[in-house]
C-alpha cells in the first residue's frame, strides 16, 4: 500500500483518488476549490462547466482516432463507476450517467455542413472496433425519439453514446472515496515523492500525481481555451439525450440535465479570458438551440458560465510516469470522455 | 528569379495560409512548415476581445519566426468599417506590422464582403499608413476603386469562405487579371482542392490564400504540402506559357504519308 498525494480535484484527480483508494492506497488530494460541490463561477474544475457528453463517435469530427478509442474504452468504465457509486451511496446509476445515444442534427439548408461532418464520422468503424457509423433517421423516427425537435430537421442517431451528470458525479466521487480531501490548498510544485503547497509546506508521499488542469501551466506548455455555456430552465421540454446541431459556423450542443435544465454550449475560443459570456456567444448558442427546438422560446435563462479547457499544443492528453511521479494533464475538451481509460492506464503503468 | 512582391516585401512562396479550425496548434505549426508558406493570416477579433492571447498566437509567431514567414493580421468577423479600423489599429500596435488583411462582412450567410464599408475602411487605413490586403468580391469596378484608394494588393474571392467550391466565376477572375495587370491579385476564399489553386495560378493570379481546405483535410499537414507544391508548380506552368488548346489530335511524332485526314 502506497501513500499518494494528488494535485487537482477535477475529473481526472477525483477519479484517480477514487480508484486508488479502492485499491487500498492512502490517498490525499489537494485542490484550491473550497469544497467538492460546484461553485458555478467558472473558476473551478472545467469538468463542472462541461456538458459531460460521452461521445467518442461525435468527437471524431475534430479529434484524432486516439481520442475516439480512449472514449470508447471509457464509456463502459464510467458505467461501472456509476453502478458502484449508486450501490455505495444508495442512489441510482442514472443519477450519474445515462446512455440513450446521442443525435446529430442539421437544418435542411445546412446539408453541406452535415455532409462534411458525416464524412468524417463514417470512417469510425475502421478506426475503432466498438463504434458504429451514424444511423440516418427518417422524420418519423426522429420525431419519435425527440418530439420537441423542429419539423424538417434531419437527424442521425449515434447509438451507444451517452452523458454523465457532472454536478452529481463529481461530488459523488469525493463522497464515496476513502481519500483525504484538502480543499483550499493549491499545489505549487511536484517532484518525485514530494508535493509543495502554495504556502510553502513540503509534503512527502510514495507517489505524487499531477492531475491539475491549467494549474499545471508552470510545468507544461498548457493553454486555456475559452468555452461558454448557457443553462436554460425549460419545464415541459423533455429532452432524452444529448444532441449536436451541425451548422456552417457554430458548433452547438444541447444536453438535458435533471430538473428540466438544458445546457447549451459551447464556444471554443483561443483565448485564456475568463470574463463573462459574450453577447455574441450567448446569442449564437441560444439562437441555434431555439432553431432546433422552437419550444425553448419560453425557457428561462438560469445561468451563463465561462471556463477554460486545459490544452497542450497537440490538444491531446499526456501521461508521463517516472518513479514517484505521475503526470496526467491536458484533457482539453475530452476530460469526461476519456478520463477512465487514461486513469486505468496510468495506474497500471505505475504498478499501483 | 520569380518573386512575389507584397508592398515591397519579396517572397518566394505564393501560398498564403490561414490559421483557423486546425485540429490543434501542433498540427497548424506542422502545416505551416509543410506548406513552405511565407505569409500566415490570423484572425484577432475574438482573441483580442477579452484578456488576449492564451499562447496560441505566441505559438504561431514562434513558428513564423523559425520559418522566416510574415504575420498578416486579419479583421475576420467585422461588420463595419469602424469595427475593422479599430481592430487593425490594435493589431498594428500589438504585432508591429503595417499589414492588415481587411475583411468587412456584408452578408451573414455568404460572408460576402461589403464593398462600401471595405472601401471606406481601406481608405482610412491607407491614410494612416497601413498596407491593406482587402478581401473583396470579383467585381471589376469595386476592385478598381480599391486600387484607386491606394491598395496595391487585391484579394478577390473564388467562392464564399469555407465553401470549398473552387473558382465559381473564372470569367470574372480572368477579367480582373486582364484589366488590372499591375495589381497584385490573390484569390482568397473558396479554394477546396489543390486543382482549384492551380486553376487560379494558371489564370495568372499572383498567389492564393486558403485555410479550410488545409485545416479540414483528412491529413492537414499532407494537404498543406500538396498546396505548396501545386501552387509553385502551377505558377511555373503559367510562366512557361501554356499552349493553346485545339480540337484535333496532334501527334508528337509526325506520321508520314498521312498529311491530311480524308473522309
Automatic annotation (TrEMBL), chain A:
Pfam families: DAO. GO terms for molecular function: oxidoreductase activity. The keyword Oxidoreductase applies. Keywords: Oxidoreductase. InterPro entries: FAD-dep_OxRdtase (IPR006076), FAD/NAD-bd_sf (IPR036188). Residues 5-341 form the FAD dependent oxidoreductase domain. SUPFAM superfamilies: FAD/NAD(P)-binding domain. GO terms for cellular component: cytoplasm. PANTHER family: GLYCINE OXIDASE, SARCOSINE DEHYDROGENASE-RELATED. This is FAD-dependent oxidoreductase. It comes from Craterilacuibacter sinensis. The lineage of its organism: Bacteria, Pseudomonadati, Pseudomonadota, Betaproteobacteria, Neisseriales.
Automatic annotation (TrEMBL), chain B:
Its main location: cytoplasm. Pathway: Cofactor biosynthesis; thiamine diphosphate biosynthesis. It is found in: Cytoplasm. Homotetramer. Forms heterodimers with either ThiH or ThiS. Catalyzes the rearrangement of 1-deoxy-D-xylulose 5-phosphate (DXP) to produce the thiazole phosphate moiety of thiamine. Sulfur is provided by the thiocarboxylate moiety of the carrier protein ThiS. In vitro, sulfur can be provided by H(2)S. It is an enzyme of class 2 (transferase). GO terms for biological process: thiamine diphosphate biosynthetic process. It catalyses: [ThiS sulfur-carrier protein]-C-terminal-Gly-aminoethanethioate + 2-iminoacetate + 1-deoxy-D-xylulose 5-phosphate = [ThiS sulfur-carrier protein]-C-terminal Gly-Gly + 2-[(2R,5Z)-2-carboxy-4-methylthiazol-5(2H)-ylidene]ethyl phosphate + 2 H2O + H(+). InterPro entries: Aldolase_TIM, Thiazole_synthase_ThiG, ThiG. One of its GO terms (molecular function) is thiazole synthase activity. This is Thiazole synthase. 1-deoxy-D-xylulose 5-phosphate binds at residues 162, 189-190, 211-212. It comes from Craterilacuibacter sinensis. Keywords: Cytoplasm, Schiff base, Thiamine biosynthesis, Transferase. Its EC number is 2.8.1.10. GO terms for cellular component: cytoplasm. Belongs to the ThiG family. Transmembrane segments: none annotated. The keyword Cytoplasm applies.
Amino acid at each position: 500500500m502506497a501513500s499518494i498525494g494528488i494535485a487537482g480535484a477535477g475529473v481526472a484527480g477525483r477519479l484517480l483518488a477514487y480508484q486508488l483508494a479502492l485499491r487500498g492506497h492512502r490517498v490525499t488530494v489537494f485542490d484550491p476549490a473550497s469544497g467538492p460541490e460546484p461553485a458555478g463561477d467558472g473558476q473551478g474544475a472545467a469538468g463542472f462547466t462541461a456538458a459531460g457528453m460521452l461521445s467518442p463517435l461525435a468527437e471524431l469530427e475534430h479529434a484524432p482516432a486516439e481520442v475516439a478509442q480512449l472514449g470508447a474504452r471509457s464509456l463502459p468504465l464510467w458505467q461501472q463507476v456509476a453502478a458502484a457509486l449508486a450501490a455505495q451511496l444508495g442512489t441510482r446509476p442514472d443519477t450519474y450517467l445515462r446512455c440513450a445515444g446521442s443525435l446529430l442534427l442539421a437544418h435542411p439548408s445546412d446539408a453541406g455542413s452535415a455532409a462534411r461532418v458525416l464524412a468524417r464520422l463514417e470512417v469510425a468503424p475502421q478506426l475503432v472496433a466498438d463504434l458504429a457509423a451514424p444511423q440516418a433517421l427518417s422524420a418519423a423516427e426522429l420525431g419519435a425519439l425527440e418530439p420537441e425537435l423542429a419539423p424538417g430537421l434531419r437527424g442521425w442517431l449515434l447509438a451507444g453514446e451517452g452523458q454523465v451528470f457532472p454536478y452529481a458525479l463529481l461530488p459523488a466521487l469525493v463522497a464515496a472515496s476513502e481519500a483525504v480531501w484538502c480543499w483550499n490548498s493549491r499545489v505549487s510544485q511536484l517532484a518525485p515523492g514530494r508535493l509543495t503547497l502554495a504556502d510553502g509546506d513540503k509534503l512527502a508521499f510514495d507517489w505524487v500525481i499531477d492531475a491539475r488542469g491549467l494549474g499545471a501551466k508552470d510545468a507544461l506548455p498548457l493553454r486555456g481555451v475559452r468555452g461558454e455555456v448557457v443553462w436554460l430552465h425549460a419545464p415541459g421540454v423533455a429532452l432524452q439525450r444529448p444532441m449536436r446541431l451541425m451548422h456552417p459556423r457554430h458548433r452547438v450542443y444541447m444536453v438535458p440535465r435533471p430538473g428540466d435544465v438544458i445546457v447549451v454550449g459551447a464556444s471554443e475560443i483561443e483565448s485564456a479570458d475568463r470574463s463573462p459570456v459574450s453577447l455574441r456567444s450567448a446569442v449564437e448558442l441560444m439562437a441555434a438551440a431555439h432553431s432546433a427546438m422552437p419550444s425553448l422560446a419560453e425557457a428561462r435563462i438560469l445561468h451563463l458560465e465561462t471556463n477554460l479547457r486545459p490544452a497542450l499544443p497537440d490538444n491531446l492528453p499526456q501521461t508521463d510516469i517516472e518513479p514517484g511521479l505521475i503526470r496526467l494533464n491536458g484533457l482539453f475538451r475530452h476530460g469526461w470522455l476519456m478520463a477512465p481509460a487514461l486513469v486505468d492506464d496510468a495506474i497500471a503503468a505505475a504498478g499501483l | 528569379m520569380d518573386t512575389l512582391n507584397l508592398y515591397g516585401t519579396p517572397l518566394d512562396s505564393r501560398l498564403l495560409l490561414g490559421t483557423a479550425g486546425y485540429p490543434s496548434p501542433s498540427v497548424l505549426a506542422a502545416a505551416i512548415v509543410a506548406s513552405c508558406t511565407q505569409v500566415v493570416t490570423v484572425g484577432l477579433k475574438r482573441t483580442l476581445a477579452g484578456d488576449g492571447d492564451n499562447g496560441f498566437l505566441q505559438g504561431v509567431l514562434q513558428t513564423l519566426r523559425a520559418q522566416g514567414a510574415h504575420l498578416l493580421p486579419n479583421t475576420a468577423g467585422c461588420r463595419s468599417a469602424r469595427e475593422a479600423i479599430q481592430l487593425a489599429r490594435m493589431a498594428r500596435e500589438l504585432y508591429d506590422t503595417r499589414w492588415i488583411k481587411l475583411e468587412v462582412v456584408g452578408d451573414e450567410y455568404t460572408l460576402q464582403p461589403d464593398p462600401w464599408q471595405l472601401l471606406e475602411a481601406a481608405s482610412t487605413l491607407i491614410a494612416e499608413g497601413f498596407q491593406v490586403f482587402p478581401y473583396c468580391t470579383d467585381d471589376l469596378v469595386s476592385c478598381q476603386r480599391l486600387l484607386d484608394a491606394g491598395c496595391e494588393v487585391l484579394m478577390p474571392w473564388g467562392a464564399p469562405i469555407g465553401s470549398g467550391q473552387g473558382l465559381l466565376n473564372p470569367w470574372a477572375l480572368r477579367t480582373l487579371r486582364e484589366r488590372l495587370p499591375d495589381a497584385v491579385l490573390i484569390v482568397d476564399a473558396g479554394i477546396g482542392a489543390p486543382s482549384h489553386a492551380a486553376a487560379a495560378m494558371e489564370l495568372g493570379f499572383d498567389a492564393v490564400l486558403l485555410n479550410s481546405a488545409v485545416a479540414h483535410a483528412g491529413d492537414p499537414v499532407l494537404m498543406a504540402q500538396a498546396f505548396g507544391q501545386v501552387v509553385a508548380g502551377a505558377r511555373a506552368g503559367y510562366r512557361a506559357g501554356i499552349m493553346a488548346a485545339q480540337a484535333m489530335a496532334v501527334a508528337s511524332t509526325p506520321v508520314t504519308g498521312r498529311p491530311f485526314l480524308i473522309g
